[in-house]
Amino acid sequence: MGDKVKYKRVLLKISGEALMGQREYGLDPDMVERIAQEVRTVHGLGVEICLVIGGGNIFRGLSGAAAGMERATADYMGMLATVINSLAMQNALERLDVPTRVQSAIPMSTVAEPYIRRRAVRHLEKGRIIIFGAGTGNPFFTTDTAAALRASEMNCDLLLKGTKVDGVYDADPVKNPRAKRYDRLTYHRVLTEDLGVMDHSAISLARENRIPIAVFSINQPGAFAEVIAGRGQFTIVS
Ligand code: UDP
């Protein structure tokens, strides 16, 4: 570790959609590999890394409920989707020789370890990346909240949200070229102005446990490592 690293233990949340690439559904193996490479670079700097991956590229509980399903059942399907993504990411990381464990909040011992906090800490201490699958294990929550929860449980110094853009803007930067990126925001402002960084329960949990949130572009090569060094373009919420 040196001036390249400002944080010792971090949790990176990636949405399921980030794994789709240009596709409309599911996983793009090239995209999964690209993100795995970003993760490997930061792992190589000696940072302990936890990952939480969403499931929106496969199934979202709210869409299932809108189509007439019972919400809780649809949410369980969404949580299973996150396990699929977690296994794909584990596979990509291990192909790059990065030791990785998946722990699932819904026990399914033939495909992943169950979530056991102290065991997860041990994995990190041994230099393994840990991917938390199945969200919080409870319906009516999101993987953003799961990310804030696990970051709190694992005593992470930083929660990162990898998005399509390089931070939080005052307007949609895709539609409005004059949109301005915030360098810094407070949790309070994000909540009161509903700035859409993460859902409210995730922001509240991070605030309560004093974990800063960095929003950055997962599509920008090298950006994850830059944020870890405290450089580059991103928005920090603290
Ligand atoms: N989900 C849930 N409880 C959790 C986490 C996720 O019920 O703790 C379900 C929920 O239906 C959600 C789906 O899993 O729509 C996929 O997660 P999310 O929408 O957060 O994924 P992302 O948008 O990040 O890809």
**Strand/helix succession:** EHEHHEEHEHEEHHEHE
The tally of helices reads 8
Tell how many strands the DSSP assignment holds: 9
Mean pLDDT: 96
GO molecular function: ATP binding; UMP kinase activity
Main location: cytoplasm
Protein name: Uridylate kinase
InterPro entries: AceGlu_kinase-like_sf (IPR036393), Asp/Glu/Uridylate_kinase (IPR001048), Uridylate_kinase (IPR011817), Uridylate_kinase_bac (IPR015963)
Describe this structure in words.
- The protein has 238 residues and is of the alpha/beta class.
- It has 8 helices and 9 strands.
- It has helices at 29-44, 61-66, 71-95, 117-125, 143-153, 187-192, 200-208, 223-228; strands at 9-14, 48-53, 100-104, 113-114, 129-133, 158-163, 184-185, 213-217, 235-237.
- The chain has a 9-stranded mixed beta sheet, sandwiched between helices.
- The structure holds uridine-5'-diphosphate.
- UMP binds at residues 55, 75, 136-143.
- Belongs to the UMP kinase family.
